[in-house]
Design goal:
It contains 6 helices and 17 strands. The chain is mainly β. Strand 2 and strand 3 form a beta hairpin.
C-alpha cells in the first residue's frame, strides 16, 4: 500500500516536473529538480505567454529580471500572487508568492520575495483500514536581489536564493529530511530613451537572465542527483506610445534550460542518465548543455522555447494582454495561449490571467485555474 502511495504521490508531485516527461530515445525531455521555480508567479507575466524578462518593470520583476527594478517609476511596492495548480485533478495544490522592492536612489534598488509551493495533503498508511499519517509536502524559496544602474539606459542585477524542498515520505528505512540548497541569478536590462516618430513615440526594451545557478540536488541516499532548473532567458520588446492615454507593447522571449540532455551512449535503446547526472557537476552541465544533444544542432534548437506577447494600457489604469508560448513536442510539448487583464484603483493594481492549452494531447498543469496578483504602490502613501 505504501509503495502505491509513493508512486501516486510522485506522479502528481514527482517534483511536479513542468518541463519533464518520461525520457525515451525519441523524446529526450530535459529533467530538473525543484521545477516549481519555473512556474510563473504573477498574473501579468502569465497573461503574456509567461514572460517578463524585457517587459516594462513592475513589482514582480524578481522572478524574471531583477535588473528592471531600478527603472521602475515607483519608489517601492509590494505584491501578492496566487497560482492554482493541477485544478483539473485537485483543489489544494497552489503556488503563492510575496514580493517587495524599494529603490534606494536613482542608481540602485533592492528587492526580496518568498515563493511557497503547497502540494496539499497526502495520507500515508500501511493498509486500507489504517487511519494513516497526514503529510503536507511543500517547497519554498526565499531570495533577495540588488540592482545597479550602470548607465542611463542599462542596469544589472544579482539575486541570491535559498531553496527548501520537503517532498520525501517518511518510511521505516529511509530518512524524510528536507533538501536545502541555494542558487543565484545574474540579469541585465536595457531601456532606451524615448524615441520620437511622426505619429507616435516609442521605447525599446531588452534583457537577459541566467537564473538558478547552483549545485545539484540529492533527493535520496543513492548517488542519483538532479540539476537545479538553471535557465538562460533573453527577451526584447517595443512600446508604441500612441498618445498620452494609449500604449501598446509587443514582446518576444527565448528560454533554454542549461542542463544536460539525456543520452543513449551505449546505443541499447535506453536513456543512460549516468553519463549526464552522475558524472557532471552543475558548472559542467551548464556549458555542455549547448552542445550535448545526441541529435546535434537540430535537437539543441528544439530545446529552446519561445514566446510572443502583446500588452495594451489605457491611461495606465486598465490593461489587456495576450501571449503564446511554444515548446517542441519532443521536449515537453507545452504549447498554449494566454489572456490577461488588469485594473488600477488608487494605490492597488489587480491582475488576472487564464491559460488555454493548444497541445490537446498534453495536459498543462496550469490550465483550469484563474491566476491572480495584487500589488500596491507604497510610494503613493504619505
Amino acid at each position: 500500500m505504501k509503495k502505491s502511495l509513493v508512486l501516486a504521490f510522485l506522479l502528481v508531485a514527482g517534483c511536479l516536473k513542468i518541463v519533464q516527461a518520461q525520457a525515451t530515445k525519441e523524446y529526450r525531455v530535459l529533467t530538473v529538480g525543484v521545477p516549481f521555480l519555473l512556474v510563473p508567479g504573477d498574473a501579468r507575466a502569465a497573461g503574456m505567454g509567461d514572460m517578463g524578462i524585457a517587459t516594462a518593470p513592475d513589482t514582480y520583476a524578481q522572478q524574471w529580471n531583477a535588473a528592471k527594478y531600478i527603472f521602475n517609476p515607483q519608489d517601492q511596492g509590494i505584491g501578492l500572487s496566487y497560482v492554482p495548480y493541477l485544478r483539473k485533478l485537485t483543489n489544494d495544490i497552489n503556488v503563492g508568492q510575496l514580493n517587495y522592492f524599494r529603490r534606494l536612489n536613482e542608481r540602485s534598488a533592492f528587492a526580496a520575495s518568498i515563493r511557497y509551493f503547497n502540494l496539499g495533503e497526502v495520507s500515508s498508511r500501511q493498509s486500507a483500514t489504517e487511519t494513516g499519517l497526514i503529510l503536507r509536502p511543500n517547497q519554498f524559496a526565499v531570495d533577495g536581489s540588488y540592482s545597479l544602474k550602470l548607465s542611463e539606459t542599462f542596469a544589472m542585477g544579482i539575486t541570491a536564493r535559498y531553496i527548501r524542498s520537503d517532498l520525501k515520505i517518511q518510511t521505516s528505512i529511509e530518512d524524510a529530511a528536507a533538501i536545502n540548497s541555494f542558487a543565484v541569478d545574474i540579469s541585465g536590462y536595457l531601456e532606451s530613451r524615448l524615441l520620437h516618430f511622426q505619429n507616435f513615440e516609442g521605447q525599446w526594451r531588452a534583457g537577459f537572465n541566467i537564473s538558478n545557478i547552483g549545485p545539484k540536488l540529492k533527493y535520496s541516499s543513492s548517488n542519483e542527483e538532479s540539476f537545479l532548473p538553471t535557465n538562460l532567458g533573453i527577451g526584447a520588446g517595443f512600446d508604441f506610445i500612441l498618445n498620452k492615454d494609449n500604449t501598446l507593447g509587443v514582446y518576444t522571449e527565448f528560454n533554454k534550460l542549461l542542463v544536460p540532455t539525456p543520452s543513449d551512449s551505449n546505443a541499447d535503446g535506453v536513456i543512460n542518465r549516468e553519463d549526464d547526472y552522475y558524472n557532471k557537476n552543475a558548472l559542467e552541465g551548464i556549458f555542455s548543455s549547448f552542445t550535448d544533444s545526441p541529435g546535434g544542432l537540430q535537437e539543441e534548437l528544439k530545446e529552446i522555447t519561445w514566446a510572443v506577447g502583446v500588452e495594451y494600457f489605457f491611461k495606465n489604469n486598465f490593461s489587456l494582454r495576450t501571449g503564446y508560448r511554444h515548446e517542441s513536442p519532443e521536449k515537453g510539448f507545452r504549447q498554449y495561449l494566454t489572456l490577461g487583464t488588469g485594473f488600477t484603483y488608487s494605490i492597488a493594481r489587480i491582475q488576472l490571467s487564464y491559460l488555454f492549452s493548444t497541445a490537446h494531447t498534453q495536459v498543462n498543469p496550469l490550465e483550469g485555474g484563474l491566476r491572480f496578483s495584487l500589488a500596491f504602490d507604497l510610494s503613493k502613501i504619505r
